[in-house]
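Hey all, quick one. A colleague (J.T.) asked me to put the pyridoxal-5'-phosphate job into the tracker so the inputs and the structure tokens live in one place instead of scattered across chat threads. No bug as far as I know, just bookkeeping. Sequence used:
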Amino acid sequence: MKRKGSAVESSFDFINPVSRIGTGSLKWERYGGRDVLPLWVADMDFRSAPEILEALRRRVEHGVFGYTVPYAEVEEVVCDYLKQRHGLAADHRSLHWVPGLVPALNVVCRAFGAPGDAVMTCTPVYPPFLSAPRNNGRELITVPLRRDHACWRFDFESMEAAVTPKTRVFILCNPHNPVGRVFEKEELDELVAFCDRHDLVLCSDEIHCDLILEPERRHVPALALSDEAARRTVALYAPSKTYNLPGLACAYAVIPEPRLRAAFKRAAQGFITEVNCFGYAGCAAAYRDGEPWRRELLRVLRGNRDLVYSFVAERIPSVRIHPMEATYLAWLDFGELGFESPAAYLERHGLGLSEGASFGESGAGWARLNFGCPRSVLESGLERLEKAVAAL
Ligand SMILES: Cc1ncc(COP(=O)(O)O)c(C=O)c1O
């Protein structure tokens, strides 16, 4: 669908594939020169919203690219976005800008407690949740999410059994990568009660919060749960997943509690670079003008998700999928086929997925498929998947 008509004269094209060869794309370079279709790392193959492209062009035209601090316009746009979209009354003083949420996860692990202390998270989960504690001299405690019928939930009993007096931080992914859950208020309240009982900082990575595919579901920010929750929360946000801007390296932590904010700042000092001028310009344009594009994107992603569901159910029934409430990532269960490393096998058959085991032990036998691409590309990926499974 090419369509006209948002605030700026624009047309959104989610149909025609854009070649990313030769642009240094992490996603495409991994299999450079080989016939492997990359549906792995979480970036999408769509061009950004025209309004974002225009803002970046204006920034290029200015022609001076010096060190850049967070300026009033971008702070106002972000505070407005948090208020309007998520009901959060954030003050610009509670924002801490970072060039990515992976660095922020590492800063959180350094900021609280001391070497030898522990950080807990639930698996399967985005791999840097597992490496950040170890990178920073912390013990990693993982507890598998529990599958309750078709729904993934926290296993509070196992979490109580695994937590130690040295545990300082719990890292939450909500909406969840890779299982696609949008956690409900009651579950999050229970998680906060768990953090209260054990005096844990709750690091809530909400990077996928604007990619909710179920129209009737709403994202519940950790900071909105209660004042007590907000006092122990470091919330992580970025426009990068939703608006497909990860290469612009712009993200931020929202930390209302001054004591936590000071600790975060100290741990980041000297390690974390400034955000660059394009990151701020892209972020401001995305939040201010990107809503029509985002709405259209969600429509396309819902269609792609439904295609993944129906194709796999009808043509590859030995592969299982759980319902995905959010993100453009499908978490596929290859357990019935009996392989430990499905992604390694599929790569040999021309399809590049993310290996489930990299999301924690409980991910072994699974793989993650990124459906944030034009439908024709997804169709060709699913056909490769079907052929690969048939060749077993
Ligand atoms: C949950 C989660 N956090 C963080 C990131 C990466 O963030 P950044 O590119 O800002 O480092 C991703 C990317 O897929 C993610 O899924």
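Adding what we noticed when we looked at it: Residues 42, 100-102, 126, 173, 177, 205, 207, 238, 240, 246, 251 surround pyridoxal-5'-phosphate (CB under 6 Å). The chain has two domains: 2-51+291-390, 65-289.
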